[in-house]
Each structure stands twice: as structure tokens, then as C-alpha cells.
Amino acid sequence: MKILVTYNLPRTPFNNLPADWELTFPQNEEMPREEIIRLLPEYDVLLTIFHSHSPMDREIIDAGKRLRLISNYGVGYNNIDTAYAREKGIAVTNTPRSVCNPTAELAMALMLALARRVAECDRRIRTEKESLWGTMKNLGASLENKTLGIVGMGNIGKNVARKAEAFGMRVIYYNRRTEVSGYRRVPLDTLLQEADFVSLHTPLTTETRHLIGARELSLMKPTAMLINTARGAVIDETALADALRQKRIAGAALDVFENEPHVTDVLYRLDNVVLTPHVGTGTIDTRIAMAEEALANIRNFFQGTPTNVVN
């Protein structure tokens, strides 16, 4: 069985694989699109990454003459035309378990960094030095006794909820379909009006694209803060930049962006924004665990017991 890996991944999980598995890795960080199309006709499996700059579209899928499985390295799979893959009889899998806790950790880290102005103070103390100090300067917001609104109460959302409760936060949530016991489910507009912090954990679909736009931002409290570790296009980034610039909401912490790796330029210049380069799963432990889960999906598929199939 031949597996084409499109991105540079930790090699440890690839040790001790079956002898008849032949793997090809990129020479650099990411395999160029034209090389994927050139090589793919000889491969049975495509192991690709969630934030690949080469979307797995019809052209690439059509190149996979022998392709039976696309094993996606990540929980989000909007980089893959899953419907067309299904038409071609190609399964698509993802890695939902290994990404859950690290993404929730980062959501809390961003929330704390934003609320306590950690990134801003770090930047300013390097230039303002002693003048930055003062009892009534640099005041942030506490998490305790505040309301956290979670949009998308799946595995990651529930993990964030448990962590937030440890900080003494009240948790409300919005889900389109599923009820989650132990927390108050509210309509999206109600969540936006009540929450002191809003954390996004919904997949990117046609229904959730620009779920948070100018109208939704106008419903939030002027003291409220928005955290996004889901997908960038869940937010209308231009509308958010405008709301932050005019201080219609207090701040935002973003790990994902609408047109990655491009970031709306205004956001770079605002002190009420914390920015990270899509590092929700960015620990070495998680990178290894994701590769192990992606490889388990391949093994299970060819053993006739497929796991984490999304199409």
C-alpha cells in the first residue's frame, strides 16, 4: 500500500509500520500542489493536513486513480471536497480525539491573555519600561463570576466548559441541534447579549460561514471579548476589525483567520487583539498523537473497521 504524505510531520509515529506500507514525504515543509497531482495516480492513500495551502479539490481527487482514502491530519476538513470524494468512492477521515484537549487549552490561554492583557503588557513593557507601572494602569478583567458563551458544544466546546468552570465561570451555550446536560442552552442572539466572553468551537460549513458578522457583534456587550480557535471564516473578519477598532467590543483573541495565512492588516495594529498563527494543536505531544490517530484511521479502514469517516 502506498501512502502520500503532503506535509512535514513528526516521524516517530511512522516507525514500525507494516512492511508493505510505502510512504512518501515532502522534501520541504509542504508538498507543492503540482507534485501531489503528479505523484498521486500511484498512491492508495493521501495523508493531508487540515490547513494545507493546497485544497484537496476535484483536480487533486481526480488525479487519484487508485485513491481509496484521504486521511486528514486534523479535525477540520473544509480543505477537502468531501462530497466529491464520496462520489468517487473515496473515504475521508479526520482526527477528532487527539485535537480536543490542546485546542481547549489554547482557548483558555487566549481568554486569559486577552482578559489580563498579557500580550499587550509584554509588548509595552519592553519600550515603556518603568513608566508602565501603576496601581490603576493596565487593568484587565477577571474570569471568575463571568459568563462564558460557547458557540458549538461539541467535544472541544465541552472541554472548554469544564476548564472554564474551574476558573469559576458560568457557562451557557448555543448548539443548533444537540442538547448538552449540565449547561443552559440558549439561542445565539441571547448568548451574544449575555456573555462576557464568547468562545467559538463550531466547524466551518456553508451554514456557519460568517456566523459572527456585524449584526452579531452589535449584540455583544461593549465589555465582551471574543475568542476563536475554530475556523477563521466563522467570523466576518472585516466586520470584527471594524468593531475592535471602534471599541464596540472590548477585545478578541484569534488563532484562526478567514484567509490564512493572511491576516486583516488592521488587526496587527490593535492592542485589544491577541493573535496566534493557528497553533491550537501546536504541541509536540499533540502532533505525534494526531499522526498516530491518522495512521490508525488508515489501518482500520483497510482492515474493514473504518473509524472517524466524515463523508
Automatic annotation (TrEMBL):
Protein's recorded name: Dihydrofolate reductase
Lineage: Bacteria, Pseudomonadati, Bacteroidota, Bacteroidia, Bacteroidales
GO BP, one annotated term: amino acid biosynthetic process
GO molecular function: NAD binding; oxidoreductase activity, acting on the CH-OH group of donors, NAD or NADP as acceptor
Domain D-isomer specific 2-hydroxyacid dehydrogenase NAD-binding: 108-280
SUPFAM superfamilies in the cross-refs: Formate/glycerate dehydrogenase catalytic domain-like (SSF52283), NAD(P)-binding Rossmann-fold domains (SSF51735)
InterPro entries with a match to the protein in the record: D-2-hydroxyacid_DH, D-isomer_2_OHA_DH_cat_dom, D-isomer_DH_CS, D-isomer_DH_CS1, D-isomer_DH_NAD-bd, NAD(P)-bd_dom_sf
Domain D-isomer specific 2-hydroxyacid dehydrogenase catalytic, first and last residues per copy: 22-311
Organism: Candidatus Odoribacter faecigallinarum
Similarity comment text for this entry: Belongs to the D-isomer specific 2-hydroxyacid dehydrogenase family.
Alphabetical UniProt keywords: Amino-acid biosynthesis, NAD, Oxidoreductase
